[in-house]
Amino acid sequence: MKKLVSVFLIACMAVGLVACGGKEQSATYTMEQDANGVVIKDTMTLNAKGDKVQQIVETMEVDMSSLDDADAEAMVPMYEAIVESYQTVEGVTASGALTDKVYKIDVTIDTTGDAVSQLSELGLMAIEGNAKGISLKASGSAMEASGYTKVE
């Protein structure tokens, strides 16, 4: 009887591990744009378990070195306001800093909660379909279609 119970428990644990499993993987995409002399480089890393994205890590670097000092300084409050908007959402960490006319924004989004829906409502993230259960494969295809390049 003990052996039967042990075999049953081992089988339950194995099924549980398979059901909860999914290979952890990540994919990184990058895009660079020139907007009237301001070069914006965006790098996104999607961390997933199986095909379900668990976290998005994004770094945006806004290079304003082609602008004169006054114009570059005038743009900083706009980027600071974007960082502050990200910071209002639970499940999101964001920071921004200006160094040598390059404003860098770092954002980490926990996609397992409601952060994606809230970011979408604030206009900080564009999503198609349901905000729950973001697909790594579909996200990668959408990013490549919008001009991002996958980093191998």
- CATH architecture group name: 2-Layer Sandwich
Helical stretch tally: 4
Low-confidence stretches: 1-19
- How would a crystallographer describe the biggest sheet? 6 strands, antiparallel
The spatial strand order of the largest sheet comes to 4-5-3-2-1-6
Number of domains: 1
- Classify the secondary structure makeup into a structural class: alpha+beta
Please count the beta strands (DSSP E, at least 2 residues each): 6
| Helix content bin | 25-40%
What does this structure look like?
Strands 4-5-3-2-1-6 form a 6-stranded antiparallel beta sheet, covered by helices on one side. The chain contains 4 helices and 6 strands. About 35% of the residues lie in helices and about 35% in strands. It is of the alpha+beta class and about 150 residues long. The protein has one domain: YehR-like (YehR-like fold, 2-Layer Sandwich). The protein starts with a helix and ends with a strand. A hairpin with a 2-residue loop joins strand 1 (about 25-35) and strand 2 (about 40-50).
Key terms for this structure?
152 residues; alpha+beta; YehR-like fold; 6-stranded antiparallel β-sheet; 4 helices; 6 strands; globular
